Structures are given as structure tokens and as C-alpha cells.
Amino acid sequence: MALLLRSLGLGLISAQEFSPNTVVQRNDNMARVGLVWYSIFMASDDLNGIKDDGDLRVFVQNTEHLKNGSLRFDFQCMVQGECGAMAVVWKKTENGEYSINYEGENTVAVSETDYNLLITSHLQNFRNGSETNVLALYETCRKYGLGSPLGVPSQKGHRCPPLLWSGNGTQGAW
User: How crowded is residue 53: how many other Cβ atoms within 10 Å of its Cβ?
Assistant: First the structure.
């Protein structure tokens, strides 16, 4: 019974921190998301792209809104079997999405965000006549008072960091 009461108390405390009124859907005010983020979860309709060595499995570390409206992403991904750091600039489109040509044509949009703790993004990849959709959930390091989620820079021959939420689902890379 004591455990049940403690769980209820923790749930109420957590609920006070989250305010559904502050969640924004499909907002293109990306100037507010320039924080240090880390990947929690990815899901896709084609799991090959987000497997450990998939070309769409990326670990965003930082976002920066540029003066011209574009977005710069610093991330890590597998390149020829090794974890490598990359930076890319996505150009803003007229409908609030961002696009880049990487392994095909790609668009990305923020599905939901509260600008402080969580971002859910939707990436569409168009390559060789097929479309792949990837949903990703990111959490800010600021929640834990951290500047960098990894703490240790990636070194040659090391694998990219795992997603923080691990399990064995069928539709997500965990």
C-alpha cells in the first residue's frame, strides 16, 4: 500500500511539471528550439533506415536557428561502419518544413514540442521512387542540468551512442 501511495504522489508531482497547454503542434517557430537535445526514440515504416547502421539513424546533439531561417543540426551517425560527427543545414520551405538532399530528398517538420523539454519530429525520405517516414523523439539536456548529453566525444572505431530508451519493439529502433 505504501508503494502505491508513493507512486501516486510521484505521478501527481510529475503531472504538475507537464502542462498540455504549452505543447505546440506543427509550429514553425524553430528559433525557439536552439538547445542541446538527445535522441530518446525513433520509429519508422522501414526499419532498415533506423537500425544500428542505418543511414537515417542519427543522434542529434544540437540545433541552431540561422539568421536566414535555415536550421543547422549537429549530430552523430554511422559512416562506413564508424560513428562520425556531422553538421548539416536544412533550408526552410514555404510550408514550415525544412528540406535537404541527403540519401534522397528529405523533409523534416516538428510534429509537437513544448520548446523546453521534448520535441517530436517527422522526417520523410524520398529515394529511388519510395518514401520512408521516421518519427523521432528528443529530450533536452537542460531538464537534467547538463550541457552535453554524451559527455565524452566520439572516438574512431566506437559505435554511436544508443537511444536512451531501450527495449525490443517491432516498429521502433530502441
Answer: 13
Q: What one-character-per-residue DSSP string does 22-86 give? A: G-EES---GGGG-SBEEEEEEEESSGGGGSTT-TT-EEEEEEEE-TTS-EEEEEEEEETTEEEEE
C-beta separation of 113 from 120 below 8 A: yes
pTM value > 0.85: no
At 109-139, the pLDDT tens digits run 888 877 777 888 899 999 999 999 998 888 8
Taken in order of first residue, the domains within the chain and their CATH numbers are 31-173 (2.40.128.20)
CA Rg value for the chain: 17
- Phi, then psi, of 40 in degrees rounded to 5: -110, -45
List the grid coordinates of 10. Answer: 510521484
Q: Is 62 exposed, middle or buried (0-12, 13-18, 19+ CB in 10 A)?
A: middle
